[in-house]
Amino acid sequence: QVQLVESGGGLVQAGGSLRVSCTASGRPFSSLLIGWFRQRPGKMREFVTAISGSAGSTDYADSVKGRFTISRDNAKNVVYLQMNSLKAEEEAVYCCAADMSATIATSKRKSAYDCWGQGNQVTVSS
Q1: Which end of the chain is more exposed for a tag (fewer CB within 10 A), N or C?
Q2: How many CA atoms, within 13 angstroms, populate the side-chain half-sphere of residue 76?
């Protein structure tokens, strides 16, 4: 089973930047597709971005394209989500998810993942 731990959340002003990390253990890290999702108050969990095991493929929600960047360091078993130009409405719990069978083509679907982190609060002040 894969264990996922997010870190790096916190408080940032609107327009600012923040980087959150997802560290995985329990399976060969480079075999895992990693996705980031967020859940805003009163909303359903939504897809943000994903990266393939080799880092050769990524996908982004339209709302974050050009502002958010996902990357990974397979030597350190960590995936990073760099968030720039954050908006107040993007305040949410950000969580990472992993799966060995998922692909970039299916990465937007919550059902594609069988392992989830507990999430990390990102607060954006306006």
Answers
A1: N
A2: 9
